[in-house]
Design goal:
This protein is about 20% helix and about 25% strand. By secondary structure, the protein is an alpha+beta fold. Helix 3 (about 65-75) packs across helix 6.
Protein backbone atom coordinates (compact mmCIF):
# COMPACT_ATOMS: atom_id res chain seq x y z
CA UNK A 1 0.00 0.00 0.00
CA UNK A 2 2.82 2.34 0.90
CA UNK A 3 4.54 1.60 -2.39
CA UNK A 4 1.42 2.39 -4.35
CA UNK A 5 0.92 5.64 -2.45
CA UNK A 6 4.61 6.51 -2.86
CA UNK A 7 4.55 5.82 -6.57
CA UNK A 8 1.33 7.69 -7.01
CA UNK A 9 2.59 10.71 -5.15
CA UNK A 10 6.01 10.47 -6.83
CA UNK A 11 4.29 10.38 -10.18
CA UNK A 12 2.38 13.46 -9.17
CA UNK A 13 5.65 15.06 -8.15
CA UNK A 14 7.18 14.16 -11.46
CA UNK A 15 4.37 15.82 -13.31
CA UNK A 16 4.40 18.87 -11.10
CA UNK A 17 8.14 19.26 -10.52
CA UNK A 18 10.02 18.01 -13.59
CA UNK A 19 13.09 20.04 -12.75
CA UNK A 20 13.83 18.14 -9.49
CA UNK A 21 16.46 15.36 -9.26
CA UNK A 22 15.42 11.79 -8.58
CA UNK A 23 16.60 12.09 -4.96
CA UNK A 24 14.69 15.33 -4.56
CA UNK A 25 11.61 13.74 -5.98
CA UNK A 26 11.85 10.83 -3.56
CA UNK A 27 12.28 13.17 -0.59
CA UNK A 28 9.28 15.26 -1.80
CA UNK A 29 7.20 12.10 -2.22
CA UNK A 30 8.08 10.83 1.24
CA UNK A 31 7.04 14.13 2.80
CA UNK A 32 3.76 14.04 0.88
CA UNK A 33 3.04 10.50 2.04
CA UNK A 34 3.63 11.45 5.68
CA UNK A 35 1.39 14.48 5.26
CA UNK A 36 -1.31 12.34 3.65
CA UNK A 37 -1.16 9.82 6.47
CA UNK A 38 -1.42 12.55 9.07
CA UNK A 39 -4.38 14.14 7.29
CA UNK A 40 -6.07 10.76 7.06
CA UNK A 41 -5.60 10.25 10.79
CA UNK A 42 -7.10 13.66 11.55
CA UNK A 43 -10.03 12.93 9.22
CA UNK A 44 -10.71 9.58 10.88
CA UNK A 45 -10.48 11.20 14.27
CA UNK A 46 -12.92 13.86 13.14
CA UNK A 47 -15.40 11.23 11.95
CA UNK A 48 -15.07 9.40 15.22
CA UNK A 49 -15.69 12.62 17.12
CA UNK A 50 -18.78 13.29 14.97
CA UNK A 51 -20.03 9.80 15.70
CA UNK A 52 -19.57 10.33 19.42
CA UNK A 53 -21.42 13.65 19.29
CA UNK A 54 -24.28 12.19 17.24
CA UNK A 55 -24.71 9.36 19.69
CA UNK A 56 -24.68 11.84 22.55
CA UNK A 57 -26.96 14.74 23.26
CA UNK A 58 -26.02 17.37 20.66
CA UNK A 59 -24.22 18.02 17.43
CA UNK A 60 -23.74 20.94 15.12
CA UNK A 61 -24.66 18.69 12.18
CA UNK A 62 -27.67 16.79 13.54
CA UNK A 63 -30.98 18.41 14.48
CA UNK A 64 -32.01 17.98 18.11
CA UNK A 65 -35.30 18.38 19.89
CA UNK A 66 -34.02 21.16 22.14
CA UNK A 67 -32.35 23.32 19.53
CA UNK A 68 -34.30 22.68 16.33
CA UNK A 69 -37.60 20.84 16.79
CA UNK A 70 -39.03 22.35 19.99
CA UNK A 71 -39.14 25.89 18.51
CA UNK A 72 -41.23 24.58 15.59
CA UNK A 73 -43.63 22.69 17.85
CA UNK A 74 -43.96 25.66 20.20
CA UNK A 75 -44.81 28.00 17.31
CA UNK A 76 -47.13 25.73 15.33
CA UNK A 77 -48.44 22.79 17.36
CA UNK A 78 -48.84 23.24 21.10
CA UNK A 79 -51.82 25.56 20.83
CA UNK A 80 -53.81 22.34 20.37
CA UNK A 81 -51.30 19.73 21.55
CA UNK A 82 -51.47 20.40 25.28
CA UNK A 83 -53.57 19.27 28.20
CA UNK A 84 -57.23 20.20 27.99
CA UNK A 85 -57.25 21.02 24.27
CA UNK A 86 -58.61 19.22 21.23
CA UNK A 87 -55.48 17.24 20.25
CA UNK A 88 -55.11 13.66 21.56
CA UNK A 89 -51.62 14.13 22.97
CA UNK A 90 -49.39 16.89 24.37
CA UNK A 91 -46.22 17.90 22.51
CA UNK A 92 -44.62 20.24 25.02
CA UNK A 93 -41.70 18.18 26.35
CA UNK A 94 -39.20 15.73 24.90
CA UNK A 95 -40.87 12.98 26.90
CA UNK A 96 -44.21 13.94 25.29
CA UNK A 97 -42.82 14.03 21.78
CA UNK A 98 -40.33 11.15 21.55
CA UNK A 99 -42.87 8.28 21.43
CA UNK A 100 -44.66 10.01 18.56
CA UNK A 101 -41.58 10.95 16.51
CA UNK A 102 -42.21 8.68 13.51
CA UNK A 103 -45.89 9.55 13.44
CA UNK A 104 -45.04 13.26 13.57
CA UNK A 105 -42.72 12.83 10.59
CA UNK A 106 -45.46 11.10 8.58
CA UNK A 107 -48.02 13.77 9.41
CA UNK A 108 -45.82 16.77 8.62
CA UNK A 109 -44.26 15.37 5.44
CA UNK A 110 -47.76 14.50 4.25
CA UNK A 111 -48.88 18.03 5.22
CA UNK A 112 -51.69 16.66 7.36
CA UNK A 113 -50.32 18.55 10.36
CA UNK A 114 -50.46 21.31 11.31
CA UNK A 115 -53.91 21.51 9.72
CA UNK A 116 -53.90 24.09 6.94
CA UNK A 117 -55.85 23.44 3.76
CA UNK A 118 -55.09 26.54 1.68
CA UNK A 119 -53.13 26.07 -1.55
CA UNK A 120 -49.99 28.23 -0.99
CA UNK A 121 -50.12 29.52 -4.56
CA UNK A 122 -53.12 31.70 -3.80
CA UNK A 123 -53.56 34.43 -1.19
CA UNK A 124 -51.69 35.35 1.95
CA UNK A 125 -53.29 34.77 5.32
CA UNK A 126 -52.80 36.22 8.76
CA UNK A 127 -52.68 33.02 10.83
CA UNK A 128 -51.04 30.62 8.39
CA UNK A 129 -50.05 27.63 10.54
CA UNK A 130 -48.45 25.59 7.75
CA UNK A 131 -44.82 24.53 7.97
CA UNK A 132 -42.16 25.68 5.54
CA UNK A 133 -40.20 23.12 3.53
CA UNK A 134 -37.18 23.84 5.73
CA UNK A 135 -39.17 23.15 8.91
CA UNK A 136 -40.50 19.88 7.49
CA UNK A 137 -36.99 18.85 6.48
CA UNK A 138 -35.69 19.64 9.97
CA UNK A 139 -38.28 17.41 11.62
CA UNK A 140 -37.72 14.58 9.11
CA UNK A 141 -33.94 14.64 9.55
CA UNK A 142 -34.32 14.74 13.33
CA UNK A 143 -36.48 11.62 13.27
CA UNK A 144 -34.15 9.85 10.82
CA UNK A 145 -31.22 10.58 13.16
CA UNK A 146 -32.95 8.81 16.04
CA UNK A 147 -34.74 11.85 17.50
CA UNK A 148 -31.91 13.01 19.80
CA UNK A 149 -32.84 15.14 22.80
CA UNK A 150 -30.05 17.72 22.65
CA UNK A 151 -28.78 19.95 25.42
CA UNK A 152 -31.19 21.43 27.95
CA UNK A 153 -29.36 24.73 27.56
CA UNK A 154 -30.60 24.93 23.94
CA UNK A 155 -34.26 24.45 24.85
CA UNK A 156 -36.29 27.67 24.50
CA UNK A 157 -38.82 28.58 27.21
CA UNK A 158 -42.09 26.73 26.77
CA UNK A 159 -44.99 28.99 25.75
CA UNK A 160 -47.48 29.93 28.43
CA UNK A 161 -51.25 29.85 28.00
CA UNK A 162 -54.01 31.42 29.98
CA UNK A 163 -56.26 28.92 31.69
CA UNK A 164 -59.43 28.33 29.73
CA UNK A 165 -59.63 31.36 27.44
CA UNK A 166 -57.03 31.40 24.67
CA UNK A 167 -56.61 35.20 24.60
CA UNK A 168 -56.98 36.14 28.25
CA UNK A 169 -60.05 36.73 30.37
CA UNK A 170 -62.89 38.30 28.34
CA UNK A 171 -64.60 41.52 29.37
CA UNK A 172 -67.99 39.79 29.46
CA UNK A 173 -68.86 36.10 29.71
CA UNK A 174 -72.35 34.87 28.79
CA UNK A 175 -73.31 31.27 29.58
CA UNK A 176 -75.91 28.94 28.20
CA UNK A 177 -78.97 29.37 30.43
CA UNK A 178 -79.06 25.72 31.58
CA UNK A 179 -76.89 22.64 31.83
CA UNK A 180 -77.71 20.29 28.99
CA UNK A 181 -77.50 16.53 29.50
CA UNK A 182 -75.97 14.54 26.64
CA UNK A 183 -76.82 10.83 26.66
CA UNK A 184 -74.12 8.19 26.29
CA UNK A 185 -75.44 7.07 22.92
CA UNK A 186 -77.90 7.98 20.19
CA UNK A 187 -78.61 11.06 18.11
CA UNK A 188 -79.11 14.42 19.82
CA UNK A 189 -81.24 16.95 17.89
CA UNK A 190 -79.61 20.30 17.23
CA UNK A 191 -81.05 22.70 19.81
CA UNK A 192 -81.27 26.47 20.34
CA UNK A 193 -80.69 27.83 23.84
CA UNK A 194 -81.32 31.53 24.44
CA UNK A 195 -79.73 33.71 27.12
CA UNK A 196 -80.72 37.33 27.72
CA UNK A 197 -77.73 39.59 27.26
CA UNK A 198 -76.65 41.62 30.30
CA UNK A 199 -76.38 44.89 28.37
CA UNK A 200 -78.51 47.91 29.14
CA UNK A 201 -76.70 49.90 26.42
CA UNK A 202 -75.55 48.92 22.95
CA UNK A 203 -72.00 47.52 22.99
CA UNK A 204 -69.35 47.05 20.33
CA UNK A 205 -67.27 43.86 20.18
CA UNK A 206 -63.82 43.44 18.62
CA UNK A 207 -63.15 39.77 19.44
CA UNK A 208 -65.08 36.71 20.61
CA UNK A 209 -64.43 33.17 21.80
CA UNK A 210 -66.62 30.13 22.40
CA UNK A 211 -65.59 27.66 25.11
CA UNK A 212 -67.50 24.38 25.48
CA UNK A 213 -68.15 23.47 29.09
CA UNK A 214 -67.31 19.81 28.43
CA UNK A 215 -64.68 18.80 25.91
CA UNK A 216 -65.44 16.08 23.40
CA UNK A 217 -69.24 16.37 23.20
CA UNK A 218 -69.75 19.62 21.27
CA UNK A 219 -69.74 18.75 17.58
CA UNK A 220 -70.21 22.39 16.67
CA UNK A 221 -71.90 25.49 18.03
CA UNK A 222 -73.17 28.65 16.38
CA UNK A 223 -73.63 31.88 18.33
CA UNK A 224 -76.22 34.38 17.09
CA UNK A 225 -78.02 37.53 18.22
CA UNK A 226 -81.81 37.86 18.39
CA UNK A 227 -82.83 41.49 18.91
CA UNK A 228 -86.14 40.76 20.63
CA UNK A 229 -88.72 38.11 21.43
CA UNK A 230 -91.59 37.75 18.95
CA UNK A 231 -94.96 39.07 20.00
CA UNK A 232 -96.63 36.61 22.37
CA UNK A 233 -93.43 34.58 22.93
CA UNK A 234 -91.61 34.10 26.22
CA UNK A 235 -88.31 32.72 27.51
CA UNK A 236 -88.74 29.48 29.50
CA UNK A 237 -85.72 27.52 30.77
CA UNK A 238 -83.55 28.81 27.98
CA UNK A 239 -86.05 28.12 25.19
CA UNK A 240 -88.17 30.68 23.36
CA UNK A 241 -91.74 29.38 23.25
CA UNK A 242 -94.64 30.81 21.28
CA UNK A 243 -98.09 31.65 22.63
CA UNK A 244 -99.12 27.99 22.37
CA UNK A 245 -96.12 26.86 24.42
CA UNK A 246 -94.20 25.34 21.48
CA UNK A 247 -90.41 25.82 21.40
CA UNK A 248 -89.14 27.95 18.51
CA UNK A 249 -85.92 27.62 16.55
CA UNK A 250 -83.73 30.61 15.68
CA UNK A 251 -85.10 30.60 12.14
CA UNK A 252 -88.67 30.59 13.41
CA UNK A 253 -87.92 33.42 15.85
CA UNK A 254 -86.32 35.54 13.12
CA UNK A 255 -89.19 34.96 10.72
CA UNK A 256 -91.75 35.77 13.40
CA UNK A 257 -89.87 39.05 13.86
CA UNK A 258 -90.22 39.85 10.17
CA UNK A 259 -87.14 38.22 8.65
CA UNK A 260 -87.32 35.95 5.61
CA UNK A 261 -84.18 33.81 5.78
CA UNK A 262 -81.44 32.50 8.05
CA UNK A 263 -78.89 34.76 6.35
CA UNK A 264 -80.57 37.86 7.78
CA UNK A 265 -79.87 36.74 11.35
CA UNK A 266 -76.82 38.29 12.95
CA UNK A 267 -74.17 35.63 13.48
CA UNK A 268 -71.41 36.17 16.02
CA UNK A 269 -69.16 33.16 15.39
CA UNK A 270 -68.93 29.37 15.36
CA UNK A 271 -67.17 26.72 17.36
CA UNK A 272 -66.00 23.90 15.09
CA UNK A 273 -62.88 21.72 15.04
CA UNK A 274 -59.92 24.08 14.70
CA UNK A 275 -61.90 27.27 15.23
CA UNK A 276 -63.53 29.02 18.17
CA UNK A 277 -61.94 32.48 18.38
CA UNK A 278 -62.16 35.46 16.03
CA UNK A 279 -60.98 39.03 16.14
CA UNK A 280 -61.60 41.78 13.62
CA UNK A 281 -59.16 43.98 11.74
CA UNK A 282 -59.61 47.65 10.93
CA UNK A 283 -62.89 49.21 12.04
CA UNK A 284 -64.89 45.98 11.73
CA UNK A 285 -66.74 44.58 14.72
CA UNK A 286 -70.06 43.37 16.09
CA UNK A 287 -72.85 45.51 17.49
CA UNK A 288 -74.91 43.85 20.24
CA UNK A 289 -77.95 45.91 21.07
CA UNK A 290 -79.31 46.50 24.54
CA UNK A 291 -81.94 43.98 25.60
CA UNK A 292 -81.02 41.43 22.92
CA UNK A 293 -80.73 37.66 23.31
CA UNK A 294 -77.76 35.39 22.60
CA UNK A 295 -78.63 32.17 20.81
CA UNK A 296 -76.44 29.12 21.54
CA UNK A 297 -77.17 26.85 18.59
CA UNK A 298 -75.75 23.54 19.85
CA UNK A 299 -74.99 20.29 18.05
CA UNK A 300 -73.90 17.57 20.48
CA UNK A 301 -72.35 14.17 19.77
CA UNK A 302 -72.65 11.41 22.43
CA UNK A 303 -69.25 10.13 23.55
CA UNK A 304 -70.14 6.80 25.16
CA UNK A 305 -70.61 8.32 28.60
CA UNK A 306 -73.46 10.52 29.77
CA UNK A 307 -72.17 14.07 30.15
CA UNK A 308 -73.37 17.61 30.89
CA UNK A 309 -72.44 20.81 29.08
CA UNK A 310 -72.88 24.53 29.57
CA UNK A 311 -71.01 26.33 26.81
CA UNK A 312 -69.84 29.92 27.33
CA UNK A 313 -69.33 32.94 25.07
CA UNK A 314 -66.54 35.40 25.85
CA UNK A 315 -66.75 38.95 24.50
CA UNK A 316 -63.76 41.29 24.17
CA UNK A 317 -65.28 44.76 23.97
CA UNK A 318 -63.90 47.66 21.98
CA UNK A 319 -61.33 49.64 23.91
CA UNK A 320 -61.68 53.31 24.59
CA UNK A 321 -60.66 55.11 21.40
CA UNK A 322 -60.93 51.95 19.30
CA UNK A 323 -62.99 52.43 16.15
CA UNK A 324 -65.91 50.11 15.34
CA UNK A 325 -67.55 51.50 12.24
CA UNK A 326 -68.82 48.49 10.31
CA UNK A 327 -70.77 45.34 11.17
CA UNK A 328 -69.30 41.94 10.26
CA UNK A 329 -71.43 39.71 8.03
CA UNK A 330 -70.80 36.00 7.45
CA UNK A 331 -72.20 35.61 3.95
CA UNK A 332 -71.79 37.25 0.54
CA UNK A 333 -75.58 37.46 0.44
CA UNK A 334 -75.23 40.62 2.56
CA UNK A 335 -74.00 42.38 -0.59
CA UNK A 336 -76.13 40.85 -3.34
CA UNK A 337 -77.97 37.83 -4.75
CA UNK A 338 -76.58 34.33 -5.36
CA UNK A 339 -77.23 32.00 -8.28
CA UNK A 340 -76.42 28.28 -8.42
CA UNK A 341 -75.27 25.77 -11.02
CA UNK A 342 -75.49 22.11 -9.96
CA UNK A 343 -73.82 19.51 -12.16
CA UNK A 344 -73.75 21.96 -15.01
CA UNK A 345 -77.42 22.95 -14.78
CA UNK A 346 -78.85 26.21 -13.32
CA UNK A 347 -80.68 25.56 -10.07
CA UNK A 348 -82.93 27.73 -7.90
CA UNK A 349 -83.03 26.51 -4.27
CA UNK A 350 -86.54 26.19 -2.91
CA UNK A 351 -87.58 28.78 -0.32
CA UNK A 352 -88.07 27.01 3.00
CA UNK A 353 -91.50 27.16 4.58
CA UNK A 354 -91.90 29.31 7.65
CA UNK A 355 -93.41 26.40 9.57
CA UNK A 356 -90.82 23.81 8.51
CA UNK A 357 -89.02 22.64 11.69
CA UNK A 358 -86.42 20.73 9.64
CA UNK A 359 -85.22 23.62 7.51
CA UNK A 360 -81.47 23.75 6.96
CA UNK A 361 -79.98 26.34 9.32
CA UNK A 362 -77.26 28.35 7.60
CA UNK A 363 -77.05 26.15 4.52
CA UNK A 364 -78.77 25.74 1.16
CA UNK A 365 -81.24 23.06 0.04
CA UNK A 366 -79.71 21.57 -3.12
CA UNK A 367 -80.54 18.41 -5.12
CA UNK A 368 -79.57 15.28 -3.25
CA UNK A 369 -76.15 13.80 -4.04
CA UNK A 370 -76.50 10.45 -5.83
CA UNK A 371 -74.84 7.27 -4.54
CA UNK A 372 -71.20 6.77 -5.59
CA UNK A 373 -70.89 10.25 -7.13
CA UNK A 374 -67.18 11.06 -6.94
CA UNK A 375 -66.91 14.67 -8.14
CA UNK A 376 -70.40 16.09 -7.71
CA UNK A 377 -70.10 19.78 -8.57
CA UNK A 378 -71.83 22.83 -7.13
CA UNK A 379 -71.06 26.36 -8.36
CA UNK A 380 -72.43 29.45 -6.64
CA UNK A 381 -72.04 32.92 -8.13
CA UNK A 382 -72.27 35.73 -5.59
CA UNK A 383 -72.99 39.13 -7.13
CA UNK A 384 -71.51 42.13 -5.29
CA UNK A 385 -73.97 44.99 -5.82
CA UNK A 386 -72.34 47.46 -3.42
CA UNK A 387 -68.73 47.91 -2.33
CA UNK A 388 -67.55 45.58 0.44
CA UNK A 389 -64.42 44.94 2.48
CA UNK A 390 -63.43 41.28 2.74
CA UNK A 391 -61.61 40.02 5.85
CA UNK A 392 -61.56 36.25 5.47
CA UNK A 393 -63.16 33.06 4.16
CA UNK A 394 -64.42 29.85 5.76
CA UNK A 395 -65.48 26.81 3.74
CA UNK A 396 -68.12 24.75 5.57
CA UNK A 397 -69.12 21.33 4.27
CA UNK A 398 -69.72 17.95 5.87
CA UNK A 399 -68.19 14.50 5.35
CA UNK A 400 -68.60 14.37 1.55
CA UNK A 401 -66.99 17.78 1.09
CA UNK A 402 -63.91 17.41 -1.14
CA UNK A 403 -62.75 20.87 -2.22
CA UNK A 404 -63.80 24.51 -2.37
CA UNK A 405 -62.32 27.37 -4.42
CA UNK A 406 -63.25 31.07 -4.25
CA UNK A 407 -62.46 33.20 -7.33
CA UNK A 408 -62.99 36.97 -7.52
CA UNK A 409 -63.91 38.53 -10.88
CA UNK A 410 -63.55 42.31 -10.93
CA UNK A 411 -65.76 44.60 -13.06
CA UNK A 412 -63.03 44.87 -15.72
CA UNK A 413 -62.86 41.07 -16.07
CA UNK A 414 -59.65 40.45 -14.16
CA UNK A 415 -59.73 37.32 -11.99
CA UNK A 416 -57.99 36.49 -8.74
CA UNK A 417 -58.21 33.27 -6.72
CA UNK A 418 -58.98 34.35 -3.16
CA UNK A 419 -58.72 30.89 -1.59
CA UNK A 420 -58.36 27.32 -2.83
CA UNK A 421 -58.81 24.40 -0.42
CA UNK A 422 -58.15 21.37 -2.67
CA UNK A 423 -58.40 18.78 0.13
CA UNK A 424 -61.19 19.89 2.44
CA UNK A 425 -61.12 18.20 5.85
CA UNK A 426 -64.29 18.22 7.93
CA UNK A 427 -62.15 17.65 11.03
CA UNK A 428 -60.48 21.06 10.61
CA UNK A 429 -62.88 23.78 9.50
CA UNK A 430 -60.49 26.70 9.52
CA UNK A 431 -61.02 30.44 9.17
CA UNK A 432 -58.63 31.82 6.55
CA UNK A 433 -58.19 35.44 7.59
CA UNK A 434 -56.63 37.64 4.93
CA UNK A 435 -53.31 39.20 5.88
CA UNK A 436 -54.92 42.58 5.16
CA UNK A 437 -58.57 43.53 4.45
CA UNK A 438 -59.42 43.66 0.75
CA UNK A 439 -61.75 46.23 -0.79
CA UNK A 440 -64.00 44.79 -3.52
CA UNK A 441 -65.90 47.20 -5.78
CA UNK A 442 -69.55 47.00 -6.79
CA UNK A 443 -70.06 45.05 -9.99
CA UNK A 444 -67.66 42.29 -8.94
CA UNK A 445 -68.64 38.69 -8.42
CA UNK A 446 -67.25 35.83 -6.33
CA UNK A 447 -67.56 32.37 -7.87
CA UNK A 448 -67.29 29.40 -5.53
CA UNK A 449 -66.66 25.97 -7.07
CA UNK A 450 -67.18 23.00 -4.75
CA UNK A 451 -66.79 19.26 -5.24
CA UNK A 452 -68.41 16.54 -3.16
CA UNK A 453 -67.22 12.92 -3.00
CA UNK A 454 -69.89 10.34 -2.19
CA UNK A 455 -67.78 7.45 -3.46
CA UNK A 456 -66.02 4.65 -1.61
CA UNK A 457 -62.72 6.48 -2.27
CA UNK A 458 -63.71 9.02 0.39
CA UNK A 459 -62.39 7.49 3.62
CA UNK A 460 -64.79 9.61 5.72
CA UNK A 461 -67.89 8.57 3.75
CA UNK A 462 -70.22 6.59 6.05
CA UNK A 463 -72.45 5.26 3.25
CA UNK A 464 -71.36 5.64 -0.40
CA UNK A 465 -74.32 3.53 -1.52
CA UNK A 466 -76.82 6.02 -0.09
CA UNK A 467 -78.29 9.21 -1.49
CA UNK A 468 -77.12 12.23 0.52
CA UNK A 469 -79.65 14.73 1.88
CA UNK A 470 -79.06 18.27 3.18
CA UNK A 471 -79.30 18.95 6.93
CA UNK A 472 -77.32 19.72 10.07
CA UNK A 473 -76.24 16.14 10.82
CA UNK A 474 -72.72 15.22 9.71
CA UNK A 475 -73.86 12.15 7.74
CA UNK A 476 -76.04 14.49 5.70
CA UNK A 477 -74.46 17.37 3.77
CA UNK A 478 -74.26 21.16 3.92
CA UNK A 479 -73.11 23.83 1.48
CA UNK A 480 -71.99 27.06 3.16
CA UNK A 481 -69.18 29.06 1.48
CA UNK A 482 -68.85 31.51 4.34
CA UNK A 483 -66.98 34.80 4.42
CA UNK A 484 -66.27 37.67 6.80
CA UNK A 485 -67.09 41.01 5.25
CA UNK A 486 -68.46 44.47 5.86
CA UNK A 487 -70.62 46.57 3.54
CA UNK A 488 -68.89 49.90 3.11
CA UNK A 489 -72.05 52.04 3.02
CA UNK A 490 -73.47 50.60 6.27
CA UNK A 491 -71.75 52.71 8.89
CA UNK A 492 -72.35 51.98 12.58
CA UNK A 493 -71.01 55.32 13.75
CA UNK A 494 -74.49 56.80 13.83
CA UNK A 495 -75.45 54.20 16.44
CA UNK A 496 -72.49 54.96 18.67
CA UNK A 497 -74.17 57.87 20.35
CA UNK A 498 -76.27 55.37 22.32
CA UNK A 499 -73.43 52.94 23.03
CA UNK A 500 -71.98 52.46 26.47
CA UNK A 501 -68.40 53.82 26.72
CA UNK A 502 -65.94 50.92 26.88
CA UNK A 503 -63.22 50.59 29.48
CA UNK A 504 -59.64 49.84 28.47
CA UNK A 505 -58.65 46.19 28.51
CA UNK A 506 -55.45 45.31 30.24
Amino acid sequence: MLEVELLTVAGTGLRMCGHLTKEGLMRRAARLVVTTLLLGSWTLAGHASDAVRTAGTDTDLTATFAKDVAPILYARCVGCHRAGEVAPMALLTYEDVRPWAKSIKRKVTGREMPPWGADPRFGTFKDDQSLSEAQIETIAKWVDAGAPRGRDADLPPAPTFSAGWSHGEPDVVIEMPVDFEIPAEGEVPVTDFFSKSPFTHDVFVKALEVRPGTAGVVHHAGLYVIDRLPDGASLVNGRIVDASGKAMSRNQVARANGGTSTEEIQKLLSFVPGRGYESYQGDAGQLIKAGSYIDFYMHYTPSGTARKDRTRLGLYLAKSGQEVGHQIYHSFSAAGPTTYIVEGQPYAPQRQRRDDPNSVEGGVNLPNIPPYAENWKVVSIHTIREPITLYGLTPHLHLRGKSMKYTLTLPDGREDVLLDVPKYDFNWQLYYELSAPRHIPAGSKVTVVTLFDNSAKNKYNPAPDKEVFWSEQSWDEMYAPQARLTVDARDLRAAKSTAEPQRDRE
